[in-house]
Specification:
The protein is an all-beta fold. It has 1 helix and 30 strands. The chain has one domain: Neuraminidase, CATH 2.120.10.30.
Length: about 450
């Protein structure tokens, strides 16, 4: 018990503060005990940064580096799939002090990627239903004022992007699992004004099925994420997979933008630099703490190692001796996340509602682990970004989606910044969207405060 990492973890738990004040709840918020807040002066490093859902706290800061990597098979590879349960009566997402969490929408069918239209409409892919929905406005209780089905008949839609960039888009692009289509669109449309037009007729299918889409800042490139078909195979079935692919907006001139990225689920363009970023699920089967998932700025032409290497020149033992020519070409991602957290969609916070220390950073939803003995993930984090570059740390922001016995009622997937500066989080465990807004320092810590 005298290891430095353990002492740091105990310090965090012992210095956590529960704030309790008298206040009036906004409509749609739930009165709950405030969660402990992490001491912002403590940065957990190394093994102390590894956690499970029982030790997460809003504001907890972590830093994992390649120096912290354990050996492959240091622990057995677990199969610990989440047991999804209905949200308990006393359960609600928990955010840092001063924030309020309200239920924006419920009764959806696998809500996943979301984007915000120029007029503030929220466009969400309901993947299992094969449709896209538009949500508009906010009622006094924090719920959406209007909900309309925009389009149906899609094939596991995930990626959503408006084109061209700016206040007057003409199309809504949708990433099906096997294609990219677009609908004619004008700001304010609640339903599609025309049939889908196929832009990319064929994308690889099977295995990882999400296909995110973003456009470069100048509108010249359409970037499409295609995850691997397997955990760690290197056969011909992985051709043009584990890549970010580049096309022109009409779906032509295909090329590989970056490679060796096992499952780049979420894509985002940095609003100032124009750089592409991605949120990645790394491989499984090497033990509880390998291989870290990650968030990174994507270097054009960069190679990130999968399936032969990971996080620089670390060779996957299942491919021992293969591809020595690539060993020194593997890029190390910017922000290493705890292994198996399943980081999905991401977005940069571009609003002004949140206090300054929360602005400009990369927010990512973590769907949660299955390949770890103790559950990890099931939360929303943010990775601090300064002058367009990540610091390497990440911070717990929204937690509370698991029960004390590590069953799971919520699984965060998508994040988007609403027109008023609130952060919206889609959750395909409870089939809901949560709205996180800042109400000031008079509010206590907690999820529904």
């Amino acid at each position: 018990m005298n290891r430095p990492g353990v002492r740091v973890l105990w310090a965090v738990l012992l210095t956590a503060v529960v704030i309790s004040v008298s206040y009036q709840l906004p409509d749609g918020a739930r009165a709950m005990p405030a969660p402990a807040q992490a001491n912002a002066d403590i940065l957990l490093r190394g093994i102390a940064a590894f956690s499970n859902v029982a030790t997460d706290r809003p504001g907890l800061r972590r830093l994992i580096t390649t120096a912290d990597l354990v050996a492959p098979f240091a622990t057995e590879s677990a199969r610990n799939n989440a047991r999804l349960v209905p949200r308990p009566e006393n359960a609600w997402p928990q955010a840092p002090a001063g924030f309020v969490v309200q239920l924006y929408a419920s009764g959806l069918e696998m809500p996943r990627k979301m984007i915000t239209a120029p007029n503030g409409d929220i466009i969400v892919a309901e993947s299992s239903a094969g449709r896209v929905r538009v949500l508009r406005g906010v009622n006094a209780n924090g719920s959406a004022a209007q909900s309309e089905v925009f389009a149906t008949g899609l094939n596991r839609p995930f990626g959503l992007a408006l084109y061209p960039n700016g206040a007057n888009p003409r199309y809504l692009y949708v990433g099906n699992t096997n294609s990219v289509v677009r609908f004619p669109y004008q700001t304010g449309d609640l339903t599609a004004r025309g049939a889908a037009e196929t832009i990319i007729p064929v994308l690889p299918t099977g295995g990882h099925w999400t296909r995110d889409i973003v456009f470069s800042s100048d509108g010249s490139k359409m970037l499409v994420a295609v995850g691997s078909g397997s955990n760690v195979n290197d056969d011909e079935r992985e051709h043009h997979r584990a890549n970010v692919l580049e096309f022109t907006p009409d779906g032509k001139n295909e090329q590989v933008y970056a490679s060796g990225i096992r499952n780049p689920v979420g894509l985002a363009i940095h609003p100032q630099t124009g750089d592409l970023w991605t949120s990645v699920n790394e491989r499984d089967g090497l033990g509880d703490d390998l291989v870290p998932d990650y968030i990174t700025r994507v270097v054009p032409g960069g190679f990130y190692g999968w399936p032969w290497y990971y996080l620089g020149p670390h060779q996957d033992p299942r491919h021992e001796g293969k591809r020595p020519d690539l060993k020194d070409k593997v890029l190390v991602p910017d922000v290493l996340l705890q292994a198996h957290t399943a980081s999905l969609a991401m977005a940069f916070y571009t609003g002004t509602q949140f206090p300054a220390q929360y602005r400009g950073h990369a927010y990512a939803a973590q769907h949660g682990s299955w390949n770890r003995a103790r559950r990890t993930g099931y939360k929303v984090i943010y990775a601090p970004v300064v002058n367009g570059r990540a610091t390497g740390e990440y911070v717990d922001f929204l937690i509370g989606f698991a029960t004390a016995d590590e069953n799971v009622w919520g699984r965060p997937v998508g994040v988007t910044v609403a027109g008023d500066g609130a952060l919206l989080v889609s959750d395909d465990g409870s089939n809901s969207i949560w709205r996180v807004s800042y109400q000031g320092n008079s509010r206590p810590a907690g999820g529904a405060n």
